[in-house]
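Quarterly update from the structural biology core.
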Amino acid sequence: MRRLLALLFALMLIAAACGSDDDSDDAGDDTGEDTTTEETAADDGAEDDAADEGDAADEGDEAAAETETIQMWIGFADEARVGFSEDRAAAFNAAHPEYNVEVTSFDSYNTVFEQAQLAIDEGNPPEIIHFFEAATQEALDAVDSDGNPIFASVTEATAGRDEILGEPVVLDDVVSAATNYYTIDGELYSMPWNTSSTVMFSNMDILSEAGISEPPTTWAGVEEACAAIMALPDAPSQGCITWPNHGWFYEQSLGQMGADLVNNDNGRSGRATEIILNSPEAVEYMQWWSDLNQSGDYVYTGVQRDWDGTSAAFLAQNVAMLIYSSSDTTVLTEGGVENGFDVSASPMPYNQDIDYEGNLIGGATLWLANGLSEAEQDGALAFLNFFSNPENAAEWHKVTGYIPITNSAVSLLEEEGWYEENPNSLVASTQLNAAAATPAATGAFVGNFVAIRDVVTAAIEDILVNNVDVAERMATAQDEAQQQLDDYNELYGE
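Predicted structure, tokenized:
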């Protein structure tokens, strides 16, 4: 019970930090009907018809009783991603009539996390739950009142099988970046799904006008490009470059420079107990960001985690370059066409004075509930593998921009000529494939990760808005984040 309460406390911290509201309404459909017959129709024919209808109803009830319902909760609300998920569930259900996969969507990762915990607390969790990568430690720590893990290891549940209910198992085919991140003690505890990285999008019309033929790849290159761009007579109205104030970008730069976010090999050789927010690499990145802001080249929208505002500035051509999530590669590329300019995607710029080590993944993964019946578990596993078979994984990539999650999906896209026609779509995969398999370039496991990210985000805003000393502010953030981690680990003390 102590650990269940601990998880509830941790989730309360996450909810408070993120401030996400659940605006979705779940309405259950009641399809039961009461049938009555009038006395005037009670002849033999009517009785026979009623008997036939009763038999059919009984058969329908029996069929319904034999159908296993698999609930999948996802943290997306947009039509494209929800529609993709619902269509694949319908296709799976048609191929496996003994199962009924139902997709429930929520407006954010945080909301599905909060709602899933409520369901867990009530003893009725969905079979498949969509959690973002920052929730991995919390998911691993989650136990019920009897001390049993809330989630099952997908590797263990698969038990070495090559196919489940006729669906080929794709676990061993998952791309290395996702496998490296989500592997714990040699096992994939969850099924990777939507995986992204940070890439840069450039308005090549503006860059070309400034005499720049290729997007810059380093911090120094960004500075040089911005000097040329902002010297244009019709320079972008807001500034040269933007990206959201979000701790994820800070983490990405630490990974590029080979610096860990937490101790114990970024939480991979043991539970993370120490935060490292004020390392020399961290301070150097924040100083570069601050200098860009002070020069007027970087545009801060004034809103933390402002994904919409930064992308809108880019699409309106008010800035020339945008560092962003590759998950919106399709949207941003097509948005450029719609707004009359050419968009080129390129790797996230790195510190040219330090050897590049690698960029991290973002996105989320699908967790399998523990304690399912054999039929429920096999159905959920079969759907997870069907969901990311080569055709489905390739289509998901085309619809969104998330990387193809399996090597077979990548091969399929190459055979189709997709990347030749859509070179922007290949950048994130290439960048992730170039990362070293080190803890820094793989990414951290740490409790209270979202709250820690928010400490970083608040520090960044203070630096950008108030021009405070970078080293001093990151030292303060270090103390604040350490307290967040200490609070979490005290509840999970070993």
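Confidence is low (pLDDT under 50) at residues 1-64.
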